[in-house]
């Protein structure tokens, strides 16, 4: 009975709201009269849909009139959200669009896999409706979800929309009130680390990079009111061990996120010595300076698992060096390994976007090549969560969703751009794999604390193995060092 009373109340409220809205439009003066709103169906009957429906009904800025909700849960059929009925599932989308005369379908599921977003989009377009989405929570910086936030679909929505559950208390316990240093702060991962760490209220956030323009950009993105002489930014290169020690002595960081690295795989194949200087010797310089830190997080890559490229070799060596220092220090020393990041600079999205803008063609190495993809925000959120649960000497392996065919990404971007662009297959480059590996041979996928974070042990490597940089200037030497016996094996 109570459910029936609640439903009748919702229906009455909705009827009165619609009647008032119609009266106000009919009696408003010409200057204040609104444009007719587009009729829209929502896909997904969760909490986001409920919040959005109230805004669509009451917010005068709303451009859409809700006329129905679709959801695949049979138990929700016939329910009403803010007076709007659930009228079917995805199988009924075309019929629902025709019956309600809807001109738009709004996708409201925040953590859907890209395959579902793509399927509902295809159904909506086939039915002659515009496809729209609600933004991720991370996009809503200073307000709750509302009708004005409804937007066009982006390629990152088609790849996947992952709502990540984190333990904010555990993360805050690691960084709040602490002096936190981020190396490579001007890069894609480093700058997002700075922005997210800033929200947890560190005692001091020290942003270190050798690129002055990138440093100024991240400084302003973290705090737009920061002054030019802001002491939080430090101009330094991790290759300069003396300068790194000087920074650590002066600022005494308690937590270090080491994100400085060279990562352009084809370029590093041609210049392995440069990769060694930054990714290996730079990591040693930071590790040696971090004598008294409570937490050291080495930002790694999935290419370090069973590596075949210069980038993978140097990052695997960095993982092993971090584990070697874990044996010597009282703090927690961990590495965090994840797949490809869909950032603004240098990512596959940026490359494809530039190629489309130039009229094509889009270049894809192989039609079957797949990669694990996540947004920068997702990657950094998981890095912080991993830092809160990691045990010294481990690598934390982050995984979101299933591998994505890069050819599908290219085709989706062409479709979104509505440009007749060709795709050209160029063949796998040296150091590239057809698919991506997250775990090295013998590493078990064990997730004791978080469903998206696996914990794997890393065989430690002594710094003495990298004391002669000249000996590591070619790929074969790097490959050998990746398989050098661990300290325990050598002692045995």
Report how far apart the termini are.
74 Å
Mean pLDDT: 86
Order of strands across the main sheet? 10-9-8-11-12-13-18-21
Helix content: 25-40%
Extended strand count = 21
Largest sheet: 8 strands, mixed
Q: Unreliable stretches, pLDDT < 50, 5 or more residues? A: 20-33
How many helices in DSSP terms? 17
**β-strand amount:** 15-25%
Give the C-alpha Rg: 26 Å
Tertiary shape? globular
The structural class is alpha/beta
Short overview:
It contains 17 helices and 21 strands. With 492 residues, it is of the alpha/beta class.
Give the topology, please.
Layout: H1 2-27, E1 38-43, H2 47-58, E2 64-70, E3 80-81, E4 84-88, H3 93-100, E5 104-107, H4 114-126, E6 130-133, E7 151-152, H5 155-159, H6 168-175, E8 179-183, H7 188-198, E9 204-209, H8 212-222, E10 233-235, H9 241-251, E11 255-258, H10 265-270, H11 272-289, E12 295-299, H12 310-326, E13 332-337, E14 340-342, H13 348-357, E15 362-364, E16 370-371, E17 373-375, H14 376-389, E18 394-398, E19 404-405, H15 406-417, E20 423-425, E21 453-457, H16 475-482, H17 487-491
Parallel strand pairs: 1-2, 1-5, 2-4, 5-6, 8-9, 8-11, 9-10, 11-12, 12-13, 13-18, 14-17, 15-20
Antiparallel strand pairs: 3-4, 6-7, 16-19, 18-21
């Amino acid at each position: 009975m109570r459910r029936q009373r609640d439903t009748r109340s919702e229906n009455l409220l909705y009827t009165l709201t619609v009647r008032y809205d119609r009266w106000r439009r009919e009696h408003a003066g010409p200057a204040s009269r609104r444009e007719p709103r587009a009729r829209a169906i929502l896909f997904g009957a969760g909490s986001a849909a409920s919040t959005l429906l109230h805004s669509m009904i009451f917010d005068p800025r709303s451009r859409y009139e809700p006329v129905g909700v679709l959801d695949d849960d049979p138990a929700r059929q016939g329910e009403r959200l803010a007076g709007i009925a659930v009228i079917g599932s995805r199988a009924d989308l075309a019929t629902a669009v025709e019956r309600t005369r809807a001109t738009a379908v709004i996708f409201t599921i925040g953590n859907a896999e890209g395959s579902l977003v793509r399927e509902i989009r295809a159904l909506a377009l086939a039915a002659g409706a515009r496809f729209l989405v609600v933004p991720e929570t991370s996009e809503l910086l200073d307000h709750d979800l509302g009708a004005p936030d409804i937007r066009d679909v982006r390629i990152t929505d088609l790849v996947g929309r992952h709502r990540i559950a984190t333990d904010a208390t555990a993360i805050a316990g690691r960084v709040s009130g602490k002096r936190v240093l981020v190396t490579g702060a001007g890069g894609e991962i480093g700058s997002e680390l700075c922005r997210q760490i800033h929200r947890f209220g560190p005692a001091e956030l020290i942003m270190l990079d050798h690129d002055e323009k990138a440093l100024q950009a991240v400084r302003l993105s973290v705090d737009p009111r920061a002054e030019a002489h802001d002491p939080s930014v430090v101009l330094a290169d991790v290759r300069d061990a003396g300068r790194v020690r000087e920074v650590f002595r002066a600022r005494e960081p308690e937590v270090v996120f080491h994100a400085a690295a060279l990562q352009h795989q084809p370029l590093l194949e041609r210049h392995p010595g440069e990769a060694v200087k930054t990714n290996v010797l730079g990591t040693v310089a930071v590790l040696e300076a971090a004598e008294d830190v409570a937490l050291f997080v080495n930002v790694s890559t999935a290419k370090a698992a069973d590596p075949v490229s210069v980038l993978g070799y140097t990052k695997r060596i960095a993982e092993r060096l971090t584990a070697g220092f874990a044996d010597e220090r009282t703090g927690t020393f961990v590495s965090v390994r994840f797949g490809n990041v869909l950032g603004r600079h240098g990512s596959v999205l940026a490359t494809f976007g530039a190629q489309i803008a130039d009229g094509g063609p889009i270049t894809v190495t192989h039609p079957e090549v797949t990669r694990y993809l996540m947004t920068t925000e997702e990657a950094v959120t998981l890095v912080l969560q991993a830092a809160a649960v990691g045990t010294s000497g481990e690598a934390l392996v982050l995984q979101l969703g299933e591998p994505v065919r890069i050819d599908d990404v290219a085709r989706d971007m062409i479709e979104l751009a509505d440009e007749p662009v060709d795709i050209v297959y160029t063949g796998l480059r040296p150091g590239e794999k057809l698919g991506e590996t997250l775990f090295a041979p013998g590493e078990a996928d064990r997730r004791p604390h978080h469903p998206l974070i696996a914990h794997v042990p890393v065989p430690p490597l002594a710094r003495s193995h990298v004391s002669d940089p000249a000996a590591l200037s070619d790929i074969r030497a790097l490959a050998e060092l990746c398989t050098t016996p661990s300290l325990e094996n050598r002692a045995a």
